[in-house]
Every structure is written in structure tokens, then in C-alpha cells.
Amino acid sequence: MRSVPLVQEFKPFLFSYRYEGAEWNIEIPARSWEDAKRRASALALGKCEGEVIARIPARFGLVARLTAFIRNAISQR
What we know:
Layout: E1 11-19, E2 22-30, H1 33-42, H2 61-75
Antiparallel strand pairs: 1-2
């Protein structure tokens, strides 16, 4: 069974791209530069999951995550 890496093992890597005449940036958490490049190339296979309306720190636990899940489910209808 593969263990899930700790968040602390990841470092933020910044990627830039041009779109409609402007330069944009995206931050990708990864373990190394090579890992970051592989993750960035996987974005072409990704999909947009929706707009981020709030960030909830993990220390708030299950209640906050459940509240966010319900709010997201309701707002998509």
C-alpha cells in the first residue's frame, strides 16, 4: 500500500504561461523540480472543478470540511 506523503514534503513551484496577451502564473506543490514539471504536464488531462470561494485550514477539522462540501453541492444546482 502506498503511503500518502506529508504536506511538509512539498514545496511550491511557480509556472507562468501566456493567455490572451497577458502573463499568468500558477503555483504547483511538488517534491522536486522534476516532480513539478511532471505535475504541470498532467494539467492538460485535468478538469476545472469549480471556483474556489473559501480556503479552510485543516485545523478546523471535519465540521468545516462537511460545511464546505454541503455549500458547494447546493451552489452547483
